[in-house]
């Protein structure tokens, strides 16, 4: 039984690790849905006033979209790899198409939360109803009082709708929510179609076989995990060494003492080595052998682009 449980845990670990991007995007989308629901309940209050309705409704959808997009870009490690590449190598290792694809990859990952926010906002319809209410055409409603102006029409989304307009309120809200939800479903269809076409394009244009690309993904995940874990241990042991040198002793618990004894760290890595493994990376080969990362290239003691004489960029790092 224990062996069976262990095997199942390993299977689920590999499954989730191989689909980390999909799972991350799903979690971001779920978090955005929750935030949108909370925002609608707590923070959304239509002003029910001409001109303000439109601006407030537009801001309720647009401002969170902009903020979420910028946060997505900031939290994407490839953004800062790109910055490092521009600062240190001036994008010499990247062609224009590769650079364009990298920008598209960063923007695509950052767009998950904004698109989710927009879709949920449109399907709920509250912000759209608030924004569009003041632009209603009274002539499209039978027996609508023609003496009512925009000041009264703008109050349809609110509780203080004039008594003589209450009979039209349900129809108005239904029409506007229909428009809003129609736009939401259209947006879902466009996004789904775009993702499908991009995935097809990616696999059609990739120079790697399906299995090699899957291996490359696993390699990147393992390298990142091991690098971060090792960097944490290295930093802790180096810090302990320096603290001991200053104070004459260092306060470590039992596990940290064992770690410091097992892993001997004398000095930090020099800056040129950090520069070699920092920056964006394009899949390359050297004499037919793949180079899966900057760290892989550095470990092979290759200089420059690390390719054959006629080597060229073969595939952008998938993110």
Topology:
Elements: H1 2-18, H2 20-42, H3 52-75, H4 77-89, H5 96-110, H6 112-124, H7 126-132, H8 150-153, H9 166-205, H10 210-247, H11 254-262, H12 271-277, E1 282-286, E2 289-291, H13 294-299, E3 315-316
Plain-language structure description:
By secondary structure, the protein is mainly α. It has two domains: 22-205, no CATH class; 210-316, no CATH class. Helices cover 68% and strands 3% of the residues. The protein is built from 13 helices and three strands; from the N terminus they run ααααααααααααββαβ. It has helices at residues 2-18, 20-42, 52-75, 77-89, 96-110, 112-124, 126-132, 150-153, 166-205, 210-247, 254-262, 271-277, 294-299, and strands at residues 282-286, 289-291, 315-316. Strands 2-1-3 form a three-stranded antiparallel sheet. A hairpin with a 2-residue loop joins β1 and β2. α2 packs across α6, α3 (52-75) runs antiparallel to α6 (112-124) and α3 (52-75) packs across α7 (126-132). The two termini are 37 Å apart.
How many separate helices?
13
Number of strands: 3
In one word, what is the shape? elongated
Distance between the termini: 37 Å
Subcellular location: Membrane
Keywords: Ion channel, Ion transport, Membrane, Transmembrane, Transmembrane helix, Transport
Family: Belongs to the CALHM family.
Protein name: Calcium homeostasis modulator protein 2
């Amino acid at each position: 039984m224990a062996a069976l449980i262990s095997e199942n845990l390993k299977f689920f670990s590999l499954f989730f690790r191989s689909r980390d991007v999909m799972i991350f995007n799903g979690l971001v989308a779920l978090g955005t849905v929750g935030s949108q629901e909370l925002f609608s309940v707590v923070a959304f209050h239509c002003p029910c006033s001409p001109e303000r309705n439109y601006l407030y409704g537009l801001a309720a959808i647009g401002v969170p979209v902009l903020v979420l997009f910028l946060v997505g870009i900031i939290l994407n490690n490839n953004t800062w790899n790109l910055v490092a590449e521009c600062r240190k190598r001036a994008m010499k290792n990247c062609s224009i198409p590769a650079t364009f694809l990298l920008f598209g990859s960063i923007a695509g990952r950052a767009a998950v939360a904004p698109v989710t926010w927009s879709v949920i906002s449109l399907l709920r319809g509250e912000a759209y109803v608030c924004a569009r209410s003041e632009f209603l055409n009274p002539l499209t409603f039978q027996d609508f009082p023609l003496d009512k102006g925009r000041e009264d029409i703008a109050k349809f989304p609110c509780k203080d709708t004039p008594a003589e307009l209450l009979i039209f309120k349900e129809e108005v809200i239904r029409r506007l929510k229909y428009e809003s939800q129609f736009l939401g479903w259209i947006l879902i269809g466009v996004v789904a179609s775009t993702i499908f076409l991009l995935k097809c394009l990616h696999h059609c244009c990739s120079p790697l076989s399906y299995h090699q690309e899957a291996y490359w993904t696993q390699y990147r995940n393992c390298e990142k995990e091991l690098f971060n874990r090792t960097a944490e241990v290295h930093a802790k042991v180096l810090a302990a060494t320096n603290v001991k040198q200053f104070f004459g002793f260092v306060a470590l618990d039992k596990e940290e003492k064992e770690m410091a004894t097992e892993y001997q760290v004398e000095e930090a890595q020099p800056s040129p080595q950090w520069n070699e493994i920092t920056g964006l990376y394009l899949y390359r080969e050297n004499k037919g052998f793949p180079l899966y990362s900057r760290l892989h290239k550095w470990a092979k003691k290759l200089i420059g682009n690390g390719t054959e004489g006629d080597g060229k960029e073969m595939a952008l790092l998938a993110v």
